[in-house]
Fold these 2 entries.
Entry 1:
Amino acid sequence: MKTRVLIPMLALSLLASTTALSFGESSDEYALGIVEWQYDCHPLVFNTGLIRITDPDMNIDDDVPDRFDIEVLSDYNENNIQKYVNPVYTVIETGDSTGVFETVVFWGDPGDEGIGHRVPIWDNVTVTAKYTDHTLPLSYLDSSLDITSSIIVRDVKPIEKKNSDGISGFYYVYEPCTVELLDMKNDPKYTVNHDFIFLPPLKQIKSGIAAKDVICKEELHLVKKNWKENWVCVKNSSMEKLTSRNYIYHSFGSSGVEIPSDESIPRIPLLGLPEIDNVEIQSMIDLFENRYHTSKISFAGSNVLLNATHIGGKTVSLVIQSLDDKVTATLTCNHMDWRNQEVITENVLDYLKNVNCFNPSMEETGNEN
């Protein structure tokens, strides 16, 4: 009797699991598919592109590579009167049970009447791979989801420009596609060592360059202004003035290296300072941390910038500068009545212990140096 009951229950269980897979019902065991291109940008001179889909749920048969279809869309269709049929490509599993599927996409000249199964491309065209995932985790309410990934088809074209001496030369605009395509060409005359034209920070970020990778011209530092959150490139002298007035929210060195700026105080190796007197500097930072709620720590050139807000309403900016094996510190106190006190000293510890910025009654004393 028990055997008779067990067999129908087992059959129902198998039927339920098969139905869920067929109709895309959500399950905790399902994973969300991932769509990737080999490169974010593709040179116009390349004839093909590689698409990779990662979705373990589509590994139906462990004994043979599985396959399924995806769409490949070109926005050349949207920007031109002549319409092309977006081709369907079959992705094939890279092994018997890898859950990784790939296909090679062929580019075509839009002017070619026999373009057939190829994707129409031209300079600056966006091509999108679209995969419909029917096996979604429980957190998704719908039974399916279109997952896409796009690339830009570009050509590297140097720009002719005259330098300060009036001599013409060829330069490349520093933006993601240009950098990637120069790397892919792997030609001595196409390297990142070429002279680049560096656009203003906001234009670099808009092009897709991450803030930490923004590059300024020589002798300039990348900073982020407090009130507008605008990224700008400034000279050392301007950076010092902005820092003293608490106008800098965050800053990077000319190398684009960011120092973490969370609530915790990074130890000396993360601050970017030379190893000249780590104990003294760290004691100074600890004292600063104990007196104030530190909101930001950042690194620009040889400076460590500590911006803090006192609970009582005072805004304090501390700049620690390491130059020629000497440590100097500049502390600026901006009070509610906009009085400003700035002190520069080489005796860092004594300075921090005695400076009036750390004295709760400073607003009453108004002591200025």
Entry 2:
Amino acid sequence: GIDQTFTTAACPAQIPTATSLAATAVTATSATLNGTINANGAATTVSFAYGATAAYGSTAAATPTSLPANALGTTVSAAIGGLSCATS
């Protein structure tokens, strides 16, 4: 018979990965959260989760908030305020 050709679907993207970096500009009630993101082939929306317990409880949108699928090692940050004095 006649040969037929076909193309398989693209492989699914890997899950984006994040690396937390040290907070900067830390004051008694505010700080800047920092990290790097590898999108790993998937368009990505970035935010930070933070709080005084392991349950966190608060989120802050990162800058930049949206990253393209080809983003690798992109530095992101978020300034947060309203923190309690002398807490970790």
